[in-house]
């Protein structure tokens, strides 16, 4: 039986894997997926060919690792609890904004787009192992909100597309064409908040809105009560003044 690797050896393997993935990403961008050989990746990463082939026997496996690492910054399994559409969408929207703001994500999309005519399988791998799992986490959350009665969504797939699109269309896609495109943290927060408001306005149920209306009505009643008290005080003061005169 082969003994389990020690914690030290596991850490070293993880560090070398990270070096390989980083070197491959840079090399794919510099010379293209086709011209970047695994041997050249090993040289750029500063590891032996044997070490690289042990972890990534093919270039396709290496590209898959780049995709998975790029999208793994957010735990797609950690779906917010259902019951509060605004809170849940805010969590998901902020995660997505953080994900798209990483330079590695822009680099990944550029590789896929540049190599699409010759290597369409790269786009398929990117979608199936990267975007699709994240998209599914949002769709599953919207289904849960529908089941909880907080959202009225006939087509969760379309709703998830709309939500993610409102965020990526401002924060991410311009960066592929405009290298100097930057979005401030304040602006990023505003983009996410507006996307959430739009979704709640479109898909929030009457129950969800009634909860908010109860709070609004309660505040209005309190304000009306204060006005009535002030009016009564003013009337009493006026009567007192009349009596004195």
Describe the fold and architecture:
- The structure is a single chain.
- This protein starts with 6 loop residues before the first helix and ends with a helix.
- It is elongated.
- The protein is 78% helix and 0% strand.
- The protein has 245 residues and is mainly α.
- The longest helix is centred in the C-terminal third of the chain and has 39 residues, at 206-244.
- It has helices at 7-31, 38-45, 49-55, 59-71, 85-100, 103-115, 120-148, 156-171, 173-177, 185-203, 206-244.
- What is the number of beta strands? 0
Structural class: mainly alpha
Helix and strand sequence: HHHHHHHHHHH
Rg over alpha carbons = 27 Å
Largest sheet: none
Number of helices: 11
What is the 3D form? elongated
Low-confidence spans? 210-219
Mean pLDDT: 82
- CA-CA gap between termini: 108 Å
Strand content: under 5%
Question: Level of helix content?
Answer: over 70%
Features of the shown structure:
elongated; 245 residues; 11 helices; mainly alpha; 78% helix
Summarize the structure.
By secondary structure, the chain is mainly α. The protein is built from eleven helices and no strands.
Which secondary structure elements does this structure contain, and how are they paired or packed?
Elements: H1 7-31, H2 38-45, H3 49-55, H4 59-71, H5 85-100, H6 103-115, H7 120-148, H8 156-171, H9 173-177, H10 185-203, H11 206-244
Helix pairs in contact: 1-2, 1-4, 1-6, 2-3, 4-7, 5-8, 5-10, 7-8, 8-10
